[in-house]
């Protein structure tokens, strides 16, 4: 197996990031500095930054329905975390796209570095879909502002790719980027408050019928 593939399967790094780590002499094979393009055997000892990488037979991806009040972090600083909803054996998985404490819905956790990169790197523009409920109805002018761009204090305006009205004060929002608390900040910029926010889709992954607080192991990727 090529070493960059092994690293991507067993760390948070993508293959591209693995190659960068190899080029920076952060990877060793049996105590020797690795080179890009190296292949490894099952009994080789691989390290990243002097820590041994434990190999697994295959990648694992979990789809979790996060309840409100849980933090997408290993350290909740007093709050429960999404890892509290999983068996201890899955604590090594990395979160591919966070939700804030006050939001609920789909959270993806994976051991696949390539998938993690695809879902989280800004250049990939993976579609994310949310269902939101507001304190008041959006006007046509509000919707135009949100889809053409509003100032949320970042270097560039925030734009919603799509807004679909589901019923009074409830909407489906599609984003093609993932900035911190972007939906909340965007709506606050036009003096609207979110009463509830649920992520129902991230790239090709769907929340579907996963019960709140429960998870399923994805077998499609």
How would you portray this structure in words?
By secondary structure, the chain is of the alpha+beta class. The protein folds into three domains: 50 residues, Roll (Structural Genomics Hypothetical 15.5 Kd Protein In mrcA-pckA Intergenic Region, Chain A); 68 residues, Pseudouridine synthase I, catalytic domain, N-terminal subdomain (Alpha-Beta Plaits); 76 residues, Alpha-L RNA-binding motif (Alpha-Beta Plaits, 2-Layer Sandwich), CATH 3.30.70. Helices cover 19% and strands 26% of the residues. The chain is built from five helices and 13 strands. Strands 5, 6, 7, 8, 9, 10, 11, 12 and 13 form a nine-stranded mixed beta sheet that branches. A four-stranded antiparallel beta sheet has the order 2-1-3-4. Helix 1 packs across helix 2. It is elongated.
Tags for this entry?
Alpha-Beta Plaits, 221 residues, nine-stranded mixed beta sheet, 3 domains, 13 strands, four-stranded antiparallel beta sheet, 19% helix, Structural Genomics Hypothetical 15.5 Kd Protein In mrcA-pckA Intergenic Region, Chain A, alpha+beta, single chain
Radius of gyration: 20 Å
The CATH topology of the largest domain is what? Answer: Alpha-Beta Plaits
Low-confidence stretches: none
Task: Examine the secondary-structure arrangement and name the CATH architecture of the largest domain.
Answer: 2-Layer Sandwich
CATH top-level class of the largest domain: Alpha Beta
Distance between the termini: 20 Å
Globally, the shape reads: elongated
What is the tally of helical segments?
A: 5
Q: Mean of the pLDDT scores? A: 92
**Total domain modules:** 3
Name the CATH superfamily assignment of the largest domain: Alpha-L RNA-binding motif
Considering DSSP H and I runs of 4 or more, what fraction of the residues is helical?
10-25%
Q: What is the beta-strand fraction?
A: 25-35%
Number of strands: 13
Give the structural class.
alpha+beta
- Identify the quaternary structure here: single chain
- Major pleated sheet: 9 strands, mixed
Encode the helix/strand succession as letters. HHEEEEEEEHEHEEHEEE
């Amino acid at each position: 197996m090529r070493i960059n593939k092994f690293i991507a399967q067993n760390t948070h790094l993508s293959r591209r990031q693995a190659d960068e780590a190899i080029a920076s002499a952060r990877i060793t094979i049996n105590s020797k500095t690795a080179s890009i393009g190296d292949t490894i055997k099952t009994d080789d000892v691989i390290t990243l930054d002097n820590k041994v990488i434990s190999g697994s037979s295959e990648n694992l991806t979990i789809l979790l329905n996060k309840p409100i009040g849980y933090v997408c972090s290993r350290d909740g600083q007093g709050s429960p975390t999404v890892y509290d909803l999983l068996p201890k054996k899955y604590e090594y998985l990395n979160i591919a796209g966070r939700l804030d404490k006050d939001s609920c819905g789909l959270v993806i956790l994976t051991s696949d570095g390539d998938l993690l990169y695809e879902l989280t790197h800004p250049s990939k523009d993976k579609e994310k879909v949310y269902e939101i409920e507001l304190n008041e109805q959006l006007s046509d002018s509000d919707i135009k502002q949100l889809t053409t761009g509003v100032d949320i204090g970042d270097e560039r305006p925030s734009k919603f790719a799509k807004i679909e009205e589901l019923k009074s004060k409830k909407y489906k929002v599609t984003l093609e980027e993932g900035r911190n608390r972007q939906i909340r900040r965007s709506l606050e910029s036009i003096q609207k408050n979110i009463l509830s926010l649920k992520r129902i889709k991230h790239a090709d992954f769907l929340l579907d019928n996963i019960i709140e607080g429960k998870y399923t192991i994805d077998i499609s990727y």
